[in-house]
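Quick check before the chapter quiz. The format below is the same one you will see on the exam, so make sure you can read both the input and the output lines.
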Amino acid sequence: MGVAERRKMKHTINYNEKDKVVELKVVGDVTPDEAQQMIKEVGKTLDEKGNRHFLLDFTESPRLQMDKDARKIIGAGAKNLDLERIAITGTTPMNRMMAKVVLALLGKGKITKFFDTKEVAISWLKGLS
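Here is the expected output.
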C-alpha cells in the first residue's frame, strides 16, 4: 500500500517501552483494509522491537464486527506472527467465546489469556502473575 493510498487507521498500534509490550487497541469494527494494515504494522513492530508479548485491547469495540474477508486476513496474518504471549482485554462474553475458538484454530490458544484490566494483563505478559 503506497503512502498516498494509506489513510490513518482509527485503530492504534503502539510499543509500550516501559513494559516491553506491543499494544493494539481496536476501535469499532474492522474492515479488510484495516485488518491488512493492522497485521502488517503489528508484525513490523514485533520485528523492530524483538519483543514477542502482545496486548489486544477491545475496550472500544464491544460489538466488534468483521466481515469474512477481514477475518481471513486476520487469521492468515496472525498465524505468521511469532508471539510468546497474548493478553486480551475488553471482550464481551460472546466475543471471548468466538476469540477462543479462533485462537485455538490458529494454534495460539495456549499462549493467550483474557483479562478484565490492562494492568493485570501486562503483569501476566511480563511474567509477574
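If your answer matched, good. Helices lie at 32-49, 68-79, 93-105, 118-125.
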